[in-house]
C-alpha cells in the first residue's frame, strides 16, 4: 500500500494566496486512506530569513527536519503532498538514500532553479530544484552529488527567469517542453538517458493548463491536460522503479471551493501512487 505524507507548508510560496495551500493540502488529505496517511503539523509562524535571502528560512528548515523524521522509518515509496514545492526537498534526499542512482523528474510550469541571489521573490519554492543539485543556499541544499544535474529532467516548464535559463544551460539539465511531453515516450526516454536505477517524480499542479484546474495560484497558459500528465507519469513508472513522489501547489480560492478540483488531483495521485 502507498503511504502518504501531507505537509500543509505555505512558507515557501511567494503567492498572496500562500495560506490557501493549507486548505488545499487538507482537502486532498480528506480523500486519502486514513490508515496510510500522516498529516504533519506545520508551524503557523512565518519564520526568519537569517540573512540568507530566502524568506521564512527558519520555518522551512524546521519543516524540512519534520518531513525527514517522518520519512525515516519508510523504505517503500511515499507520496508527499504539499503545500508549496519546498516539501519535495527532504523526500528527494530520502529517496536518494534508497537507490544507488536517483533521477528526479520535475513537472512544473516553473523550473524552480533560482538561487537566493537571482530570485525575484525570495521565496524558496522558486529555488527548490537548485537546492536539490546542491547549488543553492547551504542551509537548505542537499550535498553536492546527491542528485547530479545530469540525472534531473524538467518537464512542462514555460515560465523561466533569465537566471533559470542560464542554470539549465550551465548545469546541463534536460528540459522537455509541453509539446514534447504530449508524447509520453519522450519523458520516459529522457529518464532512461540519465542512467538512473530509480526515479522520484515531483508534480506542481501548475504544470497543467489553467482550464484543467482552478485551484492554482500561478496559472500559466498552454499547459498539459490531466490525461497527458498521467500518461507521461505512467510511461516513466514503466521505465524505472518509483523511489518517491511529491505533489504540490494546490491553492483553492477558498476553503469552500477546496474540493472542486479533487477529481483532477486524485487522477494525478492515482498515477503517482
CATH 2nd-level architecture:
3-Layer(aba) Sandwich
**Proportion of residues in extended strands:** 5-15%
Counted up, domains total 1
State the shape.
globular
- Chain-averaged pLDDT: 96
Structural class, from secondary structure content? alpha/beta
CATH topology: Arginase, Chain A
Strand arrangement across the biggest beta sheet: 2-1-3-8-7-4-5-6
Would you give an account of this structure?
With 273 residues, this protein is of the alpha/beta class. It has a single domain (3-272), classed as 3-Layer(aba) Sandwich (Arginase, Chain A). Helix content is 32%, strand content 14%. It has 9 helices and 8 strands. An 8-stranded parallel sheet has the order 2-1-3-8-7-4-5-6, with helices on both faces. Helix 4 links the parallel strand 4 and strand 5 (152-155). Helix 2 runs parallel beside helix 3, helix 7 runs parallel beside helix 8 (226-239) and helix 8 (226-239) runs parallel beside helix 9. It is globular, with a radius of gyration of 16 Å. It starts with a strand and ends with a helix.
Short description:
With 273 residues, the protein is an alpha/beta fold.
Reconstruct the topology from this structure.
Blueprint: E1 3-6, H1 20-29, E2 37-39, H2 57-71, E3 78-81, H3 89-96, E4 102-107, H4 128-132, E5 152-155, H5 162-171, E6 174-176, H6 178-181, H7 184-193, E7 198-204, H8 226-239, E8 242-248, H9 262-272
Parallel strand pairs: 1-2, 1-3, 3-8, 4-5, 4-7, 5-6, 7-8
Helix pairs in contact: 2-3, 7-8, 8-9
Amino acid at each position: 500500500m502507498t503511504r502518504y505524507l501531507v505537509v500543509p507548508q505555505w512558507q515557501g510560496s511567494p503567492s498572496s494566496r500562500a495560506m490557501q495551500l493549507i486548505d488545499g493540502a487538507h482537502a486532498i488529505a480528506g480523500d486519502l486512506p486514513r490508515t496510510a496517511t500522516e498529516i504533519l503539523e506545520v508551524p503557523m509562524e512565518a519564520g526568519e530569513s537569517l540573512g540568507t535571502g530566502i524568506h521564512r528560512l527558519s520555518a522551512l528548515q524546521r519543516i524540512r527536519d519534520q518531513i525527514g523524521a517522518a520519512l525515516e522509518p519508510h523504505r517503500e515509496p511515499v507520496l508527499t503532498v504539499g503545500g508549496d514545492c519546498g516539501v519535495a526537498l527532504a523526500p528527494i534526499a530520502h529517496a536518494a538514500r534508497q537507490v544507488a542512482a536517483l533521477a528526479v523528474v520535475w513537472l512544473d510550469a516553473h523550473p524552480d532553479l533560482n538561487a537566493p541571489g537571482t530570485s525575484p521573490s525570495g521565496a524558496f519554492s522558486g529555488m527548490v530544484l537548485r537546492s536539490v543539485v546542491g547549488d543553492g543556499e547551504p542551509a537548505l541544499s542537499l550535498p553536492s552529488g546527491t542528485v547530479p544535474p545530469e540525472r534531473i529532467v524538467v518537464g512542462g516548464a514555460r515560465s523561466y527567469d533569465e537566471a533559470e535559463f542560464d542554470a539549465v544551460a550551465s548545469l546541463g539539465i534536460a528540459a522537455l517542453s509541453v509539446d514534447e511531453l504530449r508524447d509520453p515516450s519522450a519523458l520516459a526516454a529522457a529518464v532512461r538517458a540519465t542512467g538512473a536505477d530509480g526515479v522520484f517524480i515531483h508534480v506542481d499542479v501548475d504544470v497543467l493548463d489553467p482550464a484543467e484546474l482552478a485551484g492554482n495560484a500561478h496559472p500559466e497558459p498552454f499547459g498539459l491536460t490531466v490525461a497527458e500528465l498521467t500518461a507521461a507519469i505512467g510511461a516513466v513508472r514503466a521505465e524505472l522503479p518509483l523511489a518517491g513522489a511529491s505533489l504540490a501547489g494546490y491553492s483553492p480560492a477558498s476553503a469552500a471551493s477546496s474540493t472542486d478540483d479533487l477529481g483532477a488531483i486524485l487522477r494525478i495521485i492515482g498515477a503517482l501512487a
